[in-house]
Structure formats: C-alpha cells, structure tokens
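Contributing new complexes? Match this layout with D-MYO-inositol-1-phosphate.
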Amino acid sequence: MQHPMLNIAVRAARQAGTVIERAINRGHTLRVDSKGNNDFVTEIDQQSEATIIEVLHKAYPDHAILAEESGLHDGNEYQWVIDPLDGTTNFMHGYPQFSISIALKHRGQLEQAVVYDPTRQELFTATRGAGAFLNDRRIRVSNAASINGILLGTGFPFKKQQHLDAYLNMFKALFLQVADIRRAGSAALDLAYIAAGRLDGFWEIGLQEWDMAAGVLLIQEAGGLVTDFNGGGDHLSTGNIVVGNPKVLRGILQTIQPHLTEKLRK
Ligand code: IPD
Ligand code: CA
Ligand code: CA
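Output block (do not edit by hand):
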C-alpha cells in the first residue's frame, strides 16, 4: 500500500497533468512572461502550481511549500518541493517532453517523490526505504559496468551561459567515451529515466532544487547514486548534479573533474 502522503502527491500531480493536457488540446496562444535569460513562465505553469498547492494544502494545511513560481510558503517540519511544469520550453513549442515534479522533505530528508509525464501517462513514484516504481512496476537503475558505450543524459546550460565553455569541455570528454548523449529538456524526467534504467548516467550544471528533488529520491530508491561535481552531497544546494550506478557515477566524475572551473568546484 502506498504511503498516504505519496497518495496525495500522486493526486496533485495527476490533476496538474489534466490542466497541462487540456491546455495542449485547446491549442490557443499562451500568455508567456520572461523571468530571466531564456527563462519563461506560462499561465499553465502557474495554473498547474495552483492546482498542486490546493490539493496538498487541503490534505496537509500545516506543511511548508517551496514551489518554483510562488516561492516559499511557511509551515511545519514537512516541506513539499514542487516544479509544476518541468520542460516549459518544450511545452511552449508543443514538443511532448515535460513533467510535473513533487517531492516531500521531512526535516530536510527526502521522503516521497512523484514525477509525472502527462503525455505518456507515466507515473514515477518513490517512498524512502520502499523502492521506486513506474506505474506500479518496480524500477532499477541500469547495470552498466563503466561509461564506455552508455547512453548519457544531460541538460545544456541555456539559462547559465557563463558555464558554456566548461560545459562543452565536459561534453567533449564524455562524448568520446559514451555511445551517445541525449538532451531531452526536462531534468525531472531525465532523472526518472535514470531510475528506470532508460538512461545510464546524467549530469547538468546549475539546476534548481525543484528540478531535482523528486528525481534524486527516485534514483536513490532505484539503487543509483547522486552527487555534486566533487562527489559530495551538495547537489541540491549547488544545482550541479551527477547521477548513475556507482560505476557510471565514478566514470563521469573522473571525466568531468579536470574541466571544472573555480566556480563549479565549489
Ligand atoms: C528546466 C528543465 C531543463 C533544464 C533546465 C531547467 P523548467 O526547467 O528541467 O531540462 O535543463 O535547467 O530549468 O524551467 O522547464 O521548469
Ligand atoms: Ca524545472
Ligand atoms: Ca518549471
């Protein structure tokens, strides 16, 4: 049986999925605002977030919330971390690769995770200590023995272009060893794909906590590892993330570390 808090998170994600799917089928012009360099928010990001918060608040009025579009809402020692639409650029172009990401932390520790892909109706869930699932089927990270010949995922630093040179150096060093590299455009879904063994490894510079929180627990519960660029545990605060099974993770870290700039080493 699912944990009751996971059940509520799933309900919130599915309702948000309905909001997003309805918008796609309606096909009318979206209201879009700019938040920064290549960083956009549509009315659907906001509607999705409002839907999620309403469901969570109704069930748990005392819980705190950190949500991408509305920021911090104070509460008790439980905190929901929400990305209401991960992959907004894809969504704005009708490119069907985006997701909803909801995680629950208790006193700073990740406890519950949901990543939902409304296009394919794929629901990725995890509860700490109870494994990771895709639509009720248990999932595991891949068992690749090294980074040679793997399928690697990444995100381009399109909002943080100051890191482009360092990123391209890492990309080249990795590209020469792996089978191929994918940039699909929704970090939360990329991490869920790692948990499901569809991608063997992943790295990205400068993510936000809401992009990663649910995916991190999914991967840990699927037998994978998540670190920052130093191999430490500061990925949620630095936004610099490397993931994979233990052998893949080691290979990615060894390959990218010679290319870290001072800023990325922190
Ligand atoms: C973005 C996506 C993308 C990643 C960016 C994120 P958003 O989130 O996850 O894959 O490369 O860094 O900001 O803005 O679409 O929620
Ligand atoms: Ca995001
Ligand atoms: Ca988002």
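Reviewers usually confirm one structural detail per submission. For this one: The mean pLDDT is 96.
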